[in-house]
């Protein structure tokens, strides 16, 4: 019975691997994997907790492809005690995000064009205060060789504090049969090394800049930068992966907008610094993963 179930799943796994290898990277040897579905929880003691659910859903559109990537997230921020507010306060920040990415090949097969439109509905204090935030990103990718792809573009979003935009520069690089490096800065960067077929480890950097609440009024802004190490353990014939990650934040800030009632004064640019500071963090994630490079799980 066990072998019969596995036989039925293999065509689905091959189809997903083919699709994501063809559509989401310039070659199957570059970006090493894609998490089709994932659930994660991050804990930073006495600072922030974050829960996330994410999917990646592909659709065909002529010669191009569309990828829907719905995401739900929730932050729990532990605001420190103040003289005027001796009790310790928890703020709840929730985001519903729907990115829609269109990918199409160009005349030169080495180049690909990605256009992402996204809508965020970010709320503060259990949905009491919210804003609809449209945004998007444009990315060009260039496959220099089968193992190396360069990326460049820009990102923009209408946050509660104003228009937020960033230039983007990325890489997908299969350094060797056991080492991959990929990411798009300033948002994220990964390095992954294969120890065993079912065990990988590596380095990760990830940055979050988001806003939750009322535009131009009572809102919270997160600037969270995580630097850590992770292990990925492949389960269920390499279809599921358990990630354990730990590290420290760097230059992180948690700020309130000018309408925040806890203070009668404001910091620079109308912000109020909640002074959460930096601290260690720990993350656990369970995902359904499609590998694009064959570097996964047991036979």
Secondary-structure blueprint:
Blueprint lengths: L1 H22 L9 E12 L3 E8 L1 E5 L2 E5 L2 E9 L9 E17 L5 E14 L4 E17 L2 E12 L2 E15 L2 E7 L2 E9 L2 E15 L5 E17 L4 E10 L3 E4 L15 E2 L6 E12 L8
Antiparallel strand pairs: 1-2, 1-18, 2-5, 3-4, 4-6, 5-6, 6-7, 7-8, 8-9, 9-10, 10-11, 11-12, 12-13, 13-14, 14-15, 14-16, 15-18, 16-17
In words, what does this structure look like?
It is a single chain. This protein is mainly beta and 299 residues long. 7% of the residues lie in helices and 64% in strands. It has 1 helix and 18 strands. The chain has one helix at residues 2-23; strands at residues 33-44, 48-55, 57-61, 64-68, 71-79, 89-105, 111-124, 129-145, 148-159, 162-176, 179-185, 188-196, 199-213, 219-235, 240-249, 253-256, 272-273, 280-291. A 14-stranded antiparallel barrel has the order 1-2-5-6-7-8-9-10-11-12-13-14-15-18. A hairpin with a 2-residue loop joins β12 (188-196) and β13 (199-213). The longest helix has 22 residues, at 2-23.
As laid out across the biggest beta sheet, the strand order is 1-2-5-6-7-8-9-10-11-12-13-14-15-18
Q: What's the Cα radius of gyration?
A: 21 Å
| Whole-number mean pLDDT | 83
3D shape? globular
Number of strands: 18
**Distance N terminus to C terminus?**
18 Å
Features:
299 residues, mainly beta, 14-stranded antiparallel β-barrel, 1 helix, 18 strands, 64% strand, disordered N terminus
Sum this structure up briefly.
This protein has 299 residues and is mainly beta.
